[in-house]
Amino acid sequence: MGFSIALIVFSALLMLLVLMHKGKGGGLSDMFGGGMQSSVGGSSVAERNLDRITVVIGVLWFACIVVLALLVKLDG
């Protein structure tokens, strides 16, 4: 049960973090206004920290998926 809740939380955080990234041009980011300057981006240090946090949350999300798959396999 705890890993299911963690997966939901990490999924929501991952979606928010990905949406906070500045668009690099082209694709869907331009369609939703990613090509315009946003106040979230700012400095390169903030962007690097956002990248690091996104990677860490992505790894934790993947670990939750693996643990849940192992738990389902062992129960069944």
From TrEMBL:
Q: What function does the entry list? A: Involved in protein export. Participates in an early event of protein translocation.
Concerning Pfam families, the annotation shows: SecG (PF03840)
Q: What is its main location?
A: membrane
Question: What are the protein's UniProt keywords?
Answer: Cell membrane, Membrane, Protein transport, Translocation, Transmembrane, Transmembrane helix, Transport
How does the record classify its membrane topology? Multi-pass membrane protein
Starting at the broadest rank, the lineage of the source organism is: Bacteria, Bacillati, Actinomycetota, Actinomycetes, Kitasatosporales
Signal peptide boundaries: none
InterPro entries of this UniProt entry? SecG
Protein name as annotated: Protein-export membrane protein SecG
Where in the cell? Cell membrane
Taxonomy, superkingdom: Bacteria
Q: Give the similarity note.
A: Belongs to the SecG family.
> Can you tell me where the transmembrane regions are?
53-72
